[in-house]
Amino acid sequence: MKVFRLFIILILSVATLFSCMTYDVHEEPASEPEDLTPSCDIQNAYALLAGCISRDGRLLYISGHQRSSSHNRVFIIDLQRLSIIERLQADDDLIFTLALSPNEHQLATGGRGKNLRIWDTDSWEQILKIDSTEVISSAVYDHRGWSLFFTGPNNMPYELLSFYPQIETKPLSENTNIVFDDALFILKANPADGYLATGGEYGKLSYWQTSESNEKNEILWEYKNPDGDILGLEFSNDGNLLFSADSSGKVDVFDSLTGSIMQSLDADSDYLFWLTTDIRDKYLYAAASSGSVYVWDLKNFERVSDFRAHDDKIQTILTDPLNRFIVSAGFSNRIIFHNPETFQTIVELYMFDDALVAVTPDGFYTGDGDFEQYVYSGTNNRDMVIKKLQ
């Protein structure tokens, strides 16, 4: 009996040893879960150029260029429903600037097509067109919406008095009495009064008293930046500070009233194309040619972040009036919504001729129109994507 038990134990031991010897250490492990990270047809999406956002944070206005078809559109996007309200055929060429009037009844568009157009935001009909002999690189309404300033013929801004039916004393007219010697790239109106900041080539920055500040159109102060052209301007929400970005990658902070420099902020020699502050004046954001976003704390003027948001030049950066997100867009064909505190991506939008696609980093997507033809992977969950923006 003992011999038989020993024989059985010996057989089991040999079998165990044999199974260990024949186990293939290179055997494929169990298949990993499918990667549900959404991927989209980025190549055929629109490159983005200029944007603005409504005061309630619901509507995003953004211009785009479709490289393969050379189509140029202004998209009006409802961010609560993630749907396209309107596609404006605003010009036959690149649209560099959008300006929304303070009462949000008018949208001005201009660009390389050398036309300034004003659209009624209720009917989306064009109510005015002005032909220019020069590219229109920037347009901005004054703080009350009575005047629209834009770079026009021979780099001479026109002061355009916009039409309001309830204000009969402000007829639609043009005034060409503001003249500049150098090319202008960017205009910005002080949100607190009728003053206007202008920046352009050779680093020339001017601060104007305009007719909308109940003064003559004359320069209050000027500054000549030796480091490069002025490419971006922004005011603090109270109008006391003026931020000026140049092609050397530096942001100067001015006292608006006196023109004295309070700080100079560095962006590592990166071309800066757009500046914006959040509604609380907590942060200043700068969009760069490298695809990076630079962030400075406005309490101590220290840089708190610089993150690579896009793989190509960022053309515009906007902040949500409700402080839910930051929006950056540019030549990478993406509109990216970032968390305003962590700066992480919340949602990405892609614009097509017949669709909008929205995706999140954690695997969800949705859209408007025939959007599913542009999405290659992910989980279709509309409620989850919209929730990310709320």
Task: Describe the structure concisely for a colleague.
With 390 residues, the protein is mainly beta. Helices cover 7% and strands 46% of the residues.
Topology:
Layout: H1 2-22, E1 39-40, E2 47-53, E3 59-66, E4 71-78, E5 83-88, E6 95-100, E7 106-111, E8 115-120, E9 126-131, E10 139-141, E11 147-150, E12 158-161, E13 173-175, E14 184-189, E15 196-200, E16 204-209, E17 218-224, E18 230-235, E19 241-246, E20 250-255, E21 261-266, E22 272-277, E23 283-288, E24 292-297, E25 302-308, E26 314-319, E27 326-330, E28 335-338, E29 345-351, E30 355-359, E31 364-369, E32 375-377, E33 379-380, H2 382-389
Parallel strand pairs: 31-33
Antiparallel strand pairs: 1-32, 2-3, 3-4, 4-5, 6-7, 7-8, 8-9, 10-11, 11-12, 12-13, 14-15, 15-16, 16-17, 18-19, 19-20, 20-21, 22-23, 23-24, 24-25, 26-27, 27-28, 28-29, 29-30, 30-31
Explain what this protein looks like in three dimensions:
This protein has 390 residues and is mainly β. The protein is built from two helices and 33 strands.
Spatial arrangement of strands, main beta sheet:
26-27-28-29-30-31-33
What is the mean predicted local confidence, pLDDT?
A: 84
> What's the helix count?
2
Structural class: mainly beta
Report the portion of residues in β strands. over 45%
Principal-axes geometry comes out as globular
Major sheet, described briefly? 7 strands, mixed
Contiguous uncertain segments of 5+ residues? 1-33, 161-177
Radius of gyration: 27 Å
N-to-C CA distance? 78 Å
Helix content: under 10%
How many beta-strand segments? 33
